[in-house]
# Entry
Amino acid sequence: MSLVIHQFPVEREYEKNPEIKAEDVRKLAEWLKTQPHLPGEYLTDMDLAIVLHSCAFSPEVSKQVLDLHYTLRTIFTVYFKDRVVDQTILQVLNNVLIARLPTPTVYGYRAMYLRLLDPDPRNFNFCATVRAMMMEFDLWQYEEGTWPGFVLIINMQLSSLGHIAKLDLINIKQVLYFLQECMLVRLKEVHFLNAPVFMDKLMMLLKPFMSKSLMDIIHIHMPNSEGPYKYIPKKAFPKEEGGEYKDYKTINDELLERLKSNSQFFKDESLRRVDETKRLGGKTAVEDIFSVQGSFKKLNID
# Structure
């Protein structure tokens, strides 16, 4: 069976989400033609439907979030440039589990599950891990279209202060900004499982870069707690954790083949970048983006 994926048809998306109107998608496409710096020619109606859905169907918010989304994909090169399966990605998949769980959460959301496989901090690369995670996320969303909500689950079982010491404040700020302001999904919950004794130190590190709306959807679970299963069925987890999903090695081996088989997708996606020389009103710098006051997008959209 071919592992090459195809984009979810926009016609089926309209059936799935009647609130997404073809007319609104058309108007957003027309607006794109007036923004020469944006990669409108490489965006499909399905892409625009995802933007509208993530922004609660608001045309004006969608325009701002779409612009910011592709601007950050252009600026944050460490995560979004030259996305190929290289030695760095191979190392990530040896050290970190990245799993799109097949079973929806209790509330019908889709969940991505991450955990360390290697406890040695020397082998942990935060930026490369985010890079690999976003490659998988992009493929998944391309294949399935919109979800009623998205949940991020991070198992801290093998983490140590050595891993925290490797977190760079600039990269944390960039990742959290992208996640909160313009990731094209309705983020509903973030779960930290098996919280270590130094979890408060990690939260102190993250808190300056998190909005109240993000703080409100974070759930911290103590070691061996049954709490997570109130949100995510136990059967959704890998076999090593008492679930009914595949084992760690199979999950990451299949992800590796999935990334390799869809190299053309990432080549095409790399064209969806901003040309700042064509931006009306001048070039936007990273400092300009981070100085924006307020928030375009509410995380926990009902």
Summary: The radius of gyration is 19 Å. The mean pLDDT is 93. The CA atoms of residues 190 and 218 lie 5 Å apart.
